[in-house]
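Supplementary Data S3. Sequence and structure tokens for construct A.
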Amino acid sequence: MGLFGSKREGSSDLPPLQFPELPKSVPSFEADDSFMGGDAGQIRSAVSMPSMNQQVSLGTEKPLFVKVEKYRDAVETLRKLKERLSDADVILGKLSHLREEEDRELAAWQSDLERIRTQLLDIDRKLFE
């Protein structure tokens, strides 16, 4: 005796299995350029064009995949670089302004020294005449 009752031979509650007919040909799933819009095709060709300093193996074209995290890191790095470049520009402007002020001060001191020198020479000449 079985666990779930006795087996009845010859009686089946299920209808016989019927399989669907398989297609005679297999559809092709090749990339179709008309599927991609004009912009997508241009983007694909621009991305796949190698730059001058990259080595290219002849006859092989590989797609370019970038992880979102790496892209975000690159964007963040570019933002920081722009920020630091802007800071450097501000600092150089301040240094230039300070240099101009310093040059004006030095020129004023130079003129004061010349004025004092001429006065001393004038006094010396008057004393020893």
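Construct B, processed identically:
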Amino acid sequence: MTFTRTDIPDVVIIEPKVFEDPRGYFMESFRKDKLEDFLGFAVPFCQDNESKSDKGVLRGLHYQLPPFAQSKLVRVIKGRVIDVAVDIRKGSPTFGHYVAVELSGENKRQLFVPRGFAHAFVVLEDDTIFAYKVDNYYSPECDRGIAFDDPDIGITWPLSKEALLLSEKDRKQPRLKEAEIFTYEEDLYA
């Protein structure tokens, strides 16, 4: 596996080594020891999630507050997405900045999204299967979101606003400056 820090160093792209032959392929999609060695801290993943979506679906920007803050390790099994992580740790040198990475069944890249970040993805192909691990259980009481089109963040989505399909929940999220967020000094892994 290859680990690459993005422009926001806490967000990491992971590229597994893929062994292909006429039968298909094999890869290790997750190695706890290698990920934790690279990050320098433990990530106790406890739940796997999966969704299927068609082109234009945008899910996010989502996150959970402590004590149920979550790290995510996201990937696409089939299809393509643009995956986005936004730093929402007030006081961070990269507060309000985002990273956008194409994840696909073909490139097999994964993205590690740490606690203290909002996460979203937009689907670029029909029948896309998106899978991810989280290191804390879902908590409706701690569930929060930020508007996908917040001008203060300025995410450049690859599809027009009219082409996007959002849940009612995601249409009504607050802007970053109105949202309940994290502080950079918080130890989110304690």
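The mean pLDDT is 97. The radius of gyration is 16 Å.
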